[in-house]
Write a structure and sequence with these properties.
Blueprint: E1 4-8, H1 9-33, H2 44-47, H3 53-80, H4 91-112, E2 117-123, E3 129-135, H5 140-167, E4 169-173
């Protein structure tokens, strides 16, 4: 059995960012040093950047392997770790639920801001303007109540997810 490291998903996400930054740096260094130019008559060896193809490929492969391990552990954790207070909802489901609530909140925000009857100007050819009214075809009080309910649910979901991300631990293969 291989050794593991225990950390929270917030810590794993930070580790993943760090590994991706390291990989980006190695790839950039490789790109800048794998080829070079020298002027005609210039001593090629004096301007040749340090570059060890085999060593760089090992670094890239090692970082990519570690990234896959951490990402897999995090994804597996998200699939099974339940978020307290949300009736069996896992982190994975919560990561879908929060954007759904956000979209619903945005829609309800627009709906609650309108008047029951709003005056609109409609221009027809020839410059004549006809005044029309547009009417809300829903109960504004219900929309306002739903907006409050969805806003509270969104805040509760975000707080619960933050809490589980900073307290519940997962296991990642040791490196």
């Amino acid at each position: 059995m291989s050794e593991t490291i225990r950390m929270t998903s917030a810590e794993a996400a930070k580790l993943l960012r760090k590994l991706n930054e390291q990989l980006d740096n190695v790839l950039l260094m490789e790109q800048q040093s794998r080829e070079f130019s020298a002027a005609l008559g210039e001593d090629v060896d004096s301007v040749r950047p340090a570059y060890d193809y085999g060593k760089i490929q090992e670094q890239i492969e090692s970082l990519e392997t570690r990234i896959r391990q951490v990402k897999h552990a995090l994804n597996s954790f998200n699939l099974v770790q339940e978020v307290p207070g949300f009736a069996g909802m896992t982190i994975d489901q919560m990561l879908v639920y929060i954007p759904q609530l956000s979209r619903r909140k945005s829609k309800l925000s627009l709906m609650q801001q309108r008047l029951p009857r709003q005056r609109e100007r409609v221009s027809y050819g020839g410059g004549s303007q006809i005044i029309e009214y547009s009417y809300a075809n829903y109960d504004l009080e219900m929309v306002k109540a739903d907006y409050e309910r969805v806003s509270e649910e969104l805040a509760r979901a975000q707080t619960a997810l933050d809490l589980v991300n900073t307290t519940a631990q997962l296991e990642i293969p040791a490196y």
